[in-house]
C-alpha cells in the first residue's frame, strides 16, 4: 500500500476579536486571542507528483468547487516557493460548517501545509511555509501550529503559544452561512481609521481558569453587532448559550455565525449539548475542549 500522512484540521475559535484599525488595502487590523478545538476536518495526503483533491463528508458540498479549495491554494503557494516540492493526492473529510467564523477552510489549508512539510522534510517554521500560509489567507498562519495564542496585524503577527487551561466548550452553528467580507464591510471602518473600543486584556501562560474567564469578559468580539444584523439568529444562539446552566461566557467566533460557550466542567457542557441539540435538531452543536 502507498505511504500516506493524515492530520486533523481543528476549528479555530476567536475567544476575543478586537478590530483595531484598517489598512490602506482595506484589510482590518485585529487583536484576537485564538484557541482550537480537539475535533474538526480530517485531511490525508498520499504523496505523488500531481496535485489532486477529493472532498467528502457531511459539509463537502457547501465547501464549493474542489479546484478553488484552500487546500489546493495552499499547496500551490508552497510549490511556488519550494523547488521540487513533492505534491500528491489529498482527501478531505469535511465536517466543520462552512463560512462559519471558525476558519474551517484556513485550518484545512494549514493542515495541507503540515502534511506537505512532513512529506518533504520541511520544518513548520520554514519561512517559505509561513509565507505560503500568509499568501493563502489571513487566518492560515495561526492555524499552522493550531495552538492558543494572540494574533494581530491582519493575522500575520503571532504571539507566543500560550499554555491555557483546557476550556470545556460548546460550539453552536445555526447552519446559516455568513461570509467574512460582508461583515467587515458592514462595520464601515474608514481606511486608516482606528477604533476606540478599548484595549485588549493581558493574557499570559499558566493563567488560572477563573482569571482567564475574568480577562475574556473584559474582551469582546467587535464583529458581533454587525454579524447579528446580517444574521439575526446569532442573537438567539447567544441568548440560548448564555442561559445554559454553568455557562461562564457566551460569545461569537470570528465573523460568525458560530457562537461558543465556556463552562468550568465537561459535564455541564454535555448537558447543555443535549438540551440544545434536542431543541434545535437542525443546528450544528459540538462539545469540545479548547486550547
Ligand atoms: C474574521 C476572521 C477572524 O479570525 O475569521 P473568520 O470569520 O473568517 O473565521 C479572519 O480575520 C478572517 O480571515 P480569513 O477568512 O482567512 O480572511 P481572508 O480569506 O484572507 O479574507 C477574506 C476577506 O475578509 C476581509 N478581511 C479579512 C481579514 C482581515 N484581517 N481583514 C479583512 O478585512 C477582506 O475583505 C478579505 O477580502
Ligand atoms: N477547505 C475548505 N473548507 C471550507 N470552505 C472552503 C474551503 N476551501 C475554500 N473554501 C471557501 O472559503 C470560504 C470560507 O469558508 P470557511 O473557511 O469555512 O469560513 P470561516 O472562516 O468563516 O469559517 C467559503 O466561501 C468556501 O467556499
From TrEMBL:
One of its GO terms (molecular function) is ATP binding. ATP binds at residues 97-107. Transmembrane segments: none annotated. Residues 216-279 form the GHMP kinase C-terminal domain. Its EC number is 2.7.1.148. It is an enzyme of class 2 (transferase). The active site is at 12, 139. Pfam families: GHMP_kinases_C, GHMP_kinases_N. Residues 69-145 form the GHMP kinase N-terminal domain. PANTHER family: 4-DIPHOSPHOCYTIDYL-2-C-METHYL-D-ERYTHRITOL KINASE, CHLOROPLASTIC (PTHR43527:SF2). This is 4-diphosphocytidyl-2-C-methyl-D-erythritol kinase. The lineage of its organism: Bacteria, Pseudomonadati, Pseudomonadota, Alphaproteobacteria, Hyphomicrobiales.
